Amino acid sequence: MKKLVGILLLAWLLVLTASLLCSCSLTEHYEAHGFGDYRFSGTDTGYNSASEMDYFGDLSPLKDDFPCLECDYFFSSEEGPTYYNELERTLYFFVYSEEDYPAAKAWCTEHCEYLGDEAAEEYKANLFYDYYGTRDKDKYYHGDDYPKAFKRVVFHDEKHVIAFMGISATDRRAEELEEALADWGLFLNRYYSDWYSFE
């Protein structure tokens, strides 16, 4: 009897170990950082994001035409071991001098065709506008399925910062995202604090 219990215990441990190893190996993670890693341009054929979360049109004028003190790009994609359990996040930010900020902000309001008229969220003097705020909501578009997927443009007039953010989640990740969105500060801390502080 002891021998049978030992064999069953060993078999159970082998199955448990194999399942843990398989689940870890099925989790995919991809990151991009810096404007050199931003894949979209006039000659590229794709984005880093499968759901266009990192596509806001050509943002190079914000970096090249208006002298910015600091700027960066971040993208992360995580897909869990189960099918369609994905989380994609992206963030661009640009910091300007007090003199250059108004022109850069005016460029954004002029070139972001569907930018919302009023801030959807406010946090610590950051104003978050829906990137697709004035677009017809009856049609489905990538990046316009709040709370599962959305894009925002952020203006912080006191710190002279402009940011673009996008997030998309499926399955259990979408449930976690929706819970975090009940508190905008919690959401920002959980999903963006490793890249940028909105404090």
Descriptive labels:
199 residues; alpha+beta; 8-stranded antiparallel β-sheet; 5 helices; 8 strands; 30% helix
Question: How would you characterize this protein structure?
Answer:
The protein is α+β, with helices and mostly antiparallel strands. The chain contains 5 helices and 8 strands. The protein has helices at 2-26, 60-64, 101-111, 171-180, 184-192; strands at 28-33, 68-79, 86-96, 121-123, 126-130, 144-145, 149-156, 161-169. Strands 1, 2, 3, 4, 5, 6, 7 and 8 form an 8-stranded antiparallel β-sheet that branches.
Sum this structure up briefly.
The chain has 199 residues and is an alpha+beta fold. It has helices at residues 2-26, 60-64, 101-111, 171-180, 184-192, and strands spanning 28-33, 68-79, 86-96, 121-123, 126-130, 144-145, 149-156, 161-169. It contains five helices and eight strands.
- Determine the strand fraction and express it as a percent band: 25-35%
Q: Which runs of at least 5 residues are low in confidence (pLDDT < 50)? A: 18-25, 41-45
Q: Gyration radius, to the nearest Å?
A: 21 Å
Q: What pattern of helices and strands is seen along the backbone?
A: HEHEEHEEEEEHH
Show the helix and strand layout:
Blueprint (H helix, E strand, L loop, with lengths): L1 H25 L1 E6 L26 H5 L3 E12 L6 E11 L4 H11 L9 E3 L2 E5 L13 E2 L3 E8 L4 E9 L1 H10 L3 H9 L7
Antiparallel strand pairs: 1-2, 2-3, 3-8, 4-5, 5-7, 6-7, 7-8
